[in-house]
Amino acid sequence: MQYKNLGRSGLKVSQLSYGAWVSFGNQLDVKEAKSLLQCCKDNGVNFFDNAEVYANGRAEEIMGQAIRELGWKRSDIVVSTKIFWGGPGPNDKGLSRKHIVEGTKASLKRLDMDYVDVLYCHRPDTQTPIEETVRAMNYVIDKGWAFYWGTSEWSAQQITEAWGVAERLDLVGPIVEQPEYNLLTRHKVESEYLPLYTNYGLGLTTWSPLASGVLTGKYNKGNIPSDSRFALENFKIQENMKALDVIALLTPAVMEKIETVFQSKPKRPDSYR
């Protein structure tokens, strides 16, 4: 396993991470979660992702309990969670200062942790001033509840606005974005975000690399295999780790052949001629 800095920060994260979306709480109990998490760690994974909305908070509870029972040193792992959808109330969702502060405290309680390493804004909130969100995320960092903050599925313009506020107020900007990225969804990562990598050192932790399993070919005939993700979330960790062995094989020639099949590479902003 290789470890890379998350954006321009000094935080080292494994190339592969484990996410609790539609697994913990929905299909896995603590015993099964412990087995999966330990398998990840045995294979070098140190980055574990969650969100307040996953299984309505139960995913955070299971992950926290599993990590505690496994006896891991907190300093050995990187834990992230995401804030946006916290409940049915009018102030239980979004990125207001109220929900960011209260949602973070609730997530930490469920995780049974003093802090998370990375706190994401799970989606952009067009009903809350961006300055309020940036100030609130910095408040969380100042309180020691998170070390870094990031975004998920924000546009380049929204991330740029957040950085503009942060720089104007001498605050911490978002160091990482978590977008969907696969052969069917490429525009943000390969085109829209390009200036952000240079201007702000934006890091990426992408989700849905197989387009929720569509790219595996399992669903081509409209059938849903009984052991598939659509039917049951039960990732095989050891099998997923083999993805690291493929990286060295993705030569320019191979990538060109893949592009010939998918024809999904986005055009750069300066090449619309």
TrEMBL record:
Biological processes annotated in GO: monoatomic ion transmembrane transport
MF (Gene Ontology): oxidoreductase activity
Gene assigned in the entry: LOC107917780
Keyword field: Ion channel, Ion transport, NADP, Oxidoreductase, Transport
Family per record: Belongs to the shaker potassium channel beta subunit family.
Stated name of the protein: Probable voltage-gated potassium channel subunit beta isoform X2
InterPro entries per record: K_chnl_volt-dep_bsu_KCNAB-rel, NAD(P)_OxRdtase_dom_sf, NADP_OxRdtase_dom
Keyword Transferase belongs to the record: no
Domain NADP-dependent oxidoreductase: 16-245
